[in-house]
Each structure stands twice: as C-alpha cells, then as structure tokens.
Write a structure and sequence with these properties.
The protein has 508 residues and is mostly helical. The chain has 21 helices and no strands. 54% of the residues lie in helices and 0% in strands. The N and C termini lie far apart (61 Å).
Amino acid sequence: MWAAYQPSKKSCDPEKQQEKTQEEHESLSETLEQETVEPSEKEERPGQKIKAQSGAASYRCSFKNEWIENACCHQGIADVTRHINSKGHQEKQKALQSSSGIQQYSVPLPSVGAMTAQEIKVADFDIEDIVVDVGFWFKGSTNRKGFLAEFCELFESEYMEILQHVSVRWLSLETCVTRILRLYEPLASYFKSTEENQPRLKRLRGAFSDPMTEVYLLFYQATIPVFTSLNLLLQRENPSIFLLQDEMIKFIRKLCSKFILPTVLQSHHKPEDIPYVDKENHLPGNKLSVGFTTRARLNHLLDAGDITAHQVDKFQTAALKFLMRAVEYALQKLPLREPLLNHARFVDVRQRAECGVEDALYFVERYVHLLPYHSPQEHDALGEEFLDYQTMPLPRLEADPDIEGFWANMASLKHKVTGVGRFERLSTIAKLVLVLPHSNADAERVFSLVGLNKTKTRNSLALEGTLSSLMAIKMADLEPCFKWEPSKSMIKAAKSATSTYNRAHVNL
C-alpha cells in the first residue's frame, strides 16, 4: 500500500516539481477514497480505525494483513513522504524485513496478542463482529437495555449488562462470549422482534435467526480458554521466562489433542514434528473435541430438525480447519527453537534435577561482558555451585513458588568456614536470567500508561518534563495514588519546604 505514497526523485524545475506534488496528492486522495468505508456500510469499532480522506495513514498490527506492523500515525502527504524517507523508518523497515536471528543481548518476545483466537476464523463466522455488534447496539441506549430486561423477565433469566469487547484487550473476548451465551435466548428473541432498518440490526437479526450461531459461540467458549492460559502467562508481571518453553509446548499439544489421534501425539514429543496436516492422523468429525456443551447442543438441534446433517458436517470441517490453522500459526510465531528459553529452566528450583551446569554456562558464553566467569577455574567453581544447588535439601515448595525470593535468599547464603558466598556465581547468573523479559507485555503497559496520562485535554505535557516524572512515579509503584500514604518524615519535610518558600516570597 505504501508504494502509492513513495515520492519520486526531486526535479530542478519548480513548475514540474509542483505538478508532481499535485499528482501525488491527487493519487493519494483517490487511493484513500477507494479505501474509505462509509459509516452507513460499516461502523467504526474499538481498535479499528476507519481510513479517512484527510491523508491519515495508520499501521495496525493484525493477522489479517490489513496494515504493516510497528509504526506510527502521520497526517497529510507531506508528513507521509517525510516519514517514509526518514532514517528511522528505513531502519525499521529493514528490521521488519530481516529474519536474521536473535542479537547478542536480545530475547524473542512473543506478543501478548500473538495467540488470540479471534485472529483465526471458523468458516465464515467472525466472532469479533458478533461480539462488537451486540456490545455497540446496547451501548448508551437506555431504551434498548430496558427492552432486553423485559425479554429476560419473559424467559426467566437474570438481566446482565452487555459487555464491550475491545480488540486490543485480548482477554475480554472470552467474558463477552460467555455473557452473550448466558443471555442468548432473550437476545435472540429481542433481535428477531425488533423492527428497525439499521445495518447493524440487520446483521444481528440474521445471526441470531441462524441456530448455528449458538453452536459457534459455544465452540469458541470451549476453545478460547486454551489461548487465554498462555496469554495470562505472557502478561504476567513476575519473571516467567523459565516457564515459557514448557508452556508453549503444552499449548500446542493441547490444541493438537483436540483433533489428532492420541497414538500420534504419544509418538511425537516435539511440537514441530507432529504431522498435524495428514488427514489419516485426524479424529473423525464426531470425535473432535469441540466442547461437551457444543456437541450436546449440536446433536439436539439435529434431532429436532432445526439443522441438517450437511450443516453439522460443515461445522465439524470448519472446527477442524480452525484448530489446524491455530497450530500452524503457533508454530510460526512462537520461539520454540530458541535455546535461551530451554537453558533458562535451571532457575526454576522445581526443575533443577533435569538441568545441568551447561545451562548456566550458556549464559556465561552469551553475555560475555555481564558474566565474567570465563576461566577454567571459574567454570570448575560454577560447576561445584551447581552440584550443591541440585543436591541441597529444600523445604516443601508451594505450587507456584516465589523464584525471585528464592534466588535472593540463595545469594545471601555464606560458607560457614570461609564466609564467602555459597552460590555467588550461580545466583548472579540466575538474577540475570530473571530480568530478561518473557514477552512484550511490560512495554505495552508503558505505552498504555503514556496514553492514560497524555490525553487530549492534557496534550501539552512535556516528554522530558512532567510526563517523564509522572511515568517514573507510576512505573515505580503501580498502586492507585489514593492508596498511597506519605511517611511522617516526608510530610514534615514538605511542610518545611513550603514554609521556606513562603518566607522567601512573602514580599514579592
């Protein structure tokens, strides 16, 4: 798409240069007019920017290849041209196009939204469209909510507020689908009986008139938790890089277990070796793991004559393709072959017996300037510390132990005879591993924090001044400001500073 915006070489003739600039502007306007979606045809939804005719260009990170990843927003053709020719944009484009491995001090960071179920459609059923349409239909309308409450009384169901799904908040999809299913009968009756000509209502009336809509929603409700568990790990604030390798493998195998014969999974331990594409390894359609409630509802509709056997086969084929595409997507996006993730497991005290000193030495060789343990004597000493770590008795551990606290305690242990650190080298390596980010969730939180502080009504906050100070304070303590209580010494110092200031300026 950006090819249309590439500027031609500058001409020395001012008139020709002006003509070329006018031609570029007209070409850009025509392109944007073709891409513009009229409000009557498609209404704007959260997380989705409708392309306007003003020349605004935005990047959107999406599996559907709608926009290019990792960029910014600029206004007008002059800004677009300047941005494309800038050094920063060129370097970013080279980085995106390059697939050169991991740098010396970098770690592959899975995106917190990389494994979201809404990015992979089941046949022609778009779960996001349904959830967003339902949420926006009732948003801000007291009359519509009142009518829905009456239908809930008719069906003896408890009225519950319709939730809003935001595409950049990946964990909201599961709760929104669950809420729609809890109110499915009142919602279906409401949309079938409401007579309006709005495009959104027509879409919802058609969706809720189709009995297969409930089946697809039930399938998503049963499948999304598999994605949610991995996303919760990626969004954890506590260090979790030592858990990532095993959890990614469990995630892919869990997806495969829903449509692949158990004997095939038993004979293939590595996810990349699983022949998930071969049809002879697939479960039959009626044995696919689509959720107990989904299967029961599907059979009920078939026995009642509300759907045909052809619709059942179509749903099972769509569910199979969804699961296969999810596995393919996971194998492409997740860093399963990254050795750092495999070697990082030694910091987990629960896995210490399965690891060796070579795992710690991997980080010594990789981070040469940070870990100065390169001589044979240092390697021998590190090996002794690792053997001590593997064989030392430990109290009974919790299901989810505090790994940071454990290694902080290990770093404080001393030899009773020599008084030197018992795990001086190993604890230093472990602390380095624990500060490595396991996803880009922390960076995303910072961006969100900036957006919450620098708003339209506070757009003059200087980056190097007030905004930077606010960010430093809020990143240091994530508790709400109204819960913070200053110490007595701080209050005393603040009062003293105030008195000094008032005395100095009393005559001004």
